[in-house]
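Researcher: Next entry in the queue.
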Amino acid sequence: MVNLILNTYKDLEYWINENPKSYDLLDIKTQPVYLKIINISQKSKLFKVATAPFIILAEKKPNLLRKFFKIKKNIYPQAQAIIARAYLAYYRINKDKESLNKALSLLKYLEKNTAEKNKFCWGQPYNWYSRKVIPAYTPRATVSTQVANSFLDAYEITKDKNFLTIAIKSCNYFIDYFNIDEDKAGNICFSYTTLDKYHIHNANMLIASTLIRTWHYSDIKKFKEYGIKALKFTISHQNIDGSWYYWAPPDKITGRIDNYHTGFILESFEIIRKYLRNEFNYDDVLDKGINYYQKNLFENSLIPKMTNKSTYPIDIQSCAQAIITFAELKNKRPDLGKVALKIAEWTIENMYDTKGYFYYRIYKNGKIDKTPYIRWAESWMLRALTFLIDNNENI
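Model: Structure for this entry, 395 residues:
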């Protein structure tokens, strides 16, 4: 098992180095024609039926439409950050200077290629539809937090204050430019991007954990204050069974509970617990969340399900995030480290190509979408595997 994890990491690293650009699972859905069709489909049931074939084609035959639209492969700041975090983790394990140099090169790229000039925020390089069109490069919580944490990882290793300064500027950007909604109890929820006013738990918790981690190194009190208020917002909306819906009030609740977004929430909880130390008084909330996650979002306690109600499609990001989440939580629950190893073994056996990359999805009919997506799959799995190498320091 030890050799399997290490060899897979090295092969995947090689594949990423040889393929720095890739398609993205959303690149078709960001095309102007697709966005127009989506808008038309929402006008009536008749329009929804009429436009369904094209929407299904985009889902089932993406490569065909990529050729039609002449879509090019791209570089994604989120992927660059996650890959940098993987390299830094690998360096921390075995002091491999090449990995450190690769990470620092990626961080230099991210420092120079921000979403807004002289402001440390990052977004996706494509238009994105979520109730409305969010333009390309709009600062996003899910992207900017990964980048900020990559600089914090580098600061931990190098003690270079420039890396901490960048993380501080990112946290100030969250507070100054993201929309912050305060509830009656004084708890707050950060928006998903700077343009929306959505209430989404995983985005809120990603910002909360980044704020508190940055506070730990900077001692800037407002980061801690905002982080705890955001944490309490998500705590206040935990369901009785320990789960969280994707959307939070006052947004319309759809009842969707999925694997990887729950994983983001739990990972963020554990990071906050780590840096708040004795001030963290929410173990009961975290324990309930872990128990729900493990019992309801995995098939046979091993295969990551898409939602609490459906196993399929099995998504590679669910696999990667499950490994990261359980490996992070092993400090609280040592048994979860073994769970992370078992999930990794299953993922390698079922979703890994001998060419050195991971597949996107397995569908209920047995069909496998083997398209490599560096933002969605390869970067996440590279980082996930470093947690398991760290578990086996005798490599």
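Model: The mean pLDDT is 94.
Researcher: Noted, moving on.
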